[in-house]
Each structure stands twice: as C-alpha cells, then as structure tokens.
Amino acid sequence: MSDIDALPIVRTVPDLRAVVRDWRRQGFSVGFVPTMGALHEGHLGLVAEALKRADRVAASVFVNPTQFAAHEDLGTYPRQEARDAELLVGAGCHLMWAPTADQMYPAGFATRVEVGGPSQGLETDFRPHFFGGVAVVVAKLLNQVQADVAVFGEKDYQQLMVVRRMAADLDIPTEIVGSPTARDGWGLALSSRNAYLNEGQLEIARRLNGVLAQAGAQAATGRPLAAVEKDAHAALLKAGFERIDYVAIRRADDLAPFAGTVDAPARILAAAWIGRTRLIDNLAV
C-alpha cells in the first residue's frame, strides 16, 4: 500500500479487502467507480455520484488489456497515475485500487465471461473482443471491492447495459448505477481519448452531439428509423467524420432493434472516426 496526499493506493487484493473490511466494521457503506485512468471531469462526476450514495468510495485505475485488440491503442492509452491520484483526492475519493496486470490476470488465468443480450451488435460488430474483456474485468472488480453501489457513465451506454445484465445474471449484489454523460461547453462527451485530437479535429468532434440530437428528434416524430439512421450517417460524414462504424436507434432498456419506428423509450448511439481516433456517443430519444 502507498499513499499520495493522504489517498491510500492499494495494489493487491488482500490490501484492498483489508481496507474495505475496516470500512464495514465502522458501519460505512461502500461505493465504487471503475476507470482506466487518465481521469477528467466526467470521471470525477462519477465519484461525486458515488459519494451521494455511499459513505466511502473507492476508484480503480486499471488499463484492462483484455478489452483491446492487437491493433488498438493499449500501448499508447494515456496513463497518469500520480495526476489521477491528485484528482481523486480533490474529488473526495477515499481509496485508489491500482492493480498491475499480473495481479488481475496471474499466470494460468483461464476464465471467460460472455454476456449476450445487450452486447449484440453495435460495438460488437466492430470490436468483437471488447465486451468479453469488459465483462471479465468488471466481474473481477465488483467481486474484489464488494461495494454496495458502483457508478458507470452513460457515455458507454452499451457497456452499462452489458454490466447491468451481467450483474443481474450472476447475482452480484452491487447496485449498478448509470450517471449522465459529462460534456464540454460544445456538447462533446468527455473522454480520455479526446486528448488525441488536435484543434481542427476537436471542432469536428463537437458536431457529433448535434447530429445525434437532430436524428433523435426526427425519430421521435415517428419517421421510419432506416431513413433517420441513413440521414444521420450522411450528416456525420458531411460534418467531417472520416468513417462511421454505426449510427443506430435502439430500445433504451435492452438495446434491441425496433421494427420500424420508435414505439418505446429509445437511445440513439454512434461510433465515428476522426483520423486515428474513434469517438462514441449516445442520447436519449
């Protein structure tokens, strides 16, 4: 265990559980915020939400290798543990859980976690490895911390649905809470990967939210979804995005497709590329 400005940083499961057990002995409820570090205001908002719901809050900082494909940015993903610790102290967090890859995936690790349902389509069509990696690491994190409540951002909406399904199916008692997407003054969803963008690319990125809002408004009027999605795809290309992985309107509760028009609470979700940077976003319809 180490300490930066009074924030305990633990790196082994026994140390983590010792701290949480002590909190429990004192009668404290426990909240948890899982992150991959490179923290920004969106992450700190998740900590604030957890603090509303629990007496003590732990945040994990772990860049999970199992959710990256070989061609993706695992090696260059921003890492800034000391800065993350400072930000967590300022946000009122009580513990950083910062395990190594060997601690999370020791020699001989051979378990997979597969979640169907909301994992189908969208991200899985383009990153088939992704939710398997997310599911196994989140299952481990929830079991390690054993918190009363865990807070996830709605920016990764499909991920939130997958985690909720997994927790329910595996009888994990932690309550899974979604927190609204944090955005900058132009409506761009905050993301650690935004650091990859130059000024010109940021200008393009800030158009994503507006295109989705317009498409969502059209869908809400009962316009056929195939036409809405096609027009939104074209609008994103016109806005300057170089490639669109998907733009789709799905049921909000389980991400199942609609038959043709919106007839229940819905979500519009998109993934689009600017240069080598892939951005995702979503809005309620």
Strand content is 15-25%
- Helices and strands, in order, run as EEHEHEHEHHHEHEHHHEEE
Radius of gyration: 19 Å
Task: Based on Cα principal axes, name the global outline.
Answer: globular
- Helices, by number, come to 10
Question: How would you describe this protein?
Answer:
38% of the residues lie in helices and 20% in strands. By secondary structure, the chain is an alpha/beta fold. The longest helix has 16 residues, at 130-145.
Main traits of this protein?
three-stranded antiparallel sheet; 285 residues; alpha/beta; globular; 38% helix; seven-stranded mixed sheet
Task: Provide a short characterization of the protein structure.
With 285 residues, this protein is an alpha/beta fold.
Write the layout of secondary structure elements.
Layout: E1 2-4, E2 7-10, H1 13-25, E3 30-35, H2 41-53, E4 56-61, H3 81-91, E5 95-97, H4 101-104, H5 123-126, H6 130-145, E6 149-153, H7 157-169, E7 175-179, H8 199-205, H9 208-220, H10 225-239, E8 243-251, E9 266-274, E10 277-284
Parallel strand pairs: 2-5, 3-4, 3-6, 4-5, 6-7
Antiparallel strand pairs: 1-2, 8-9, 9-10
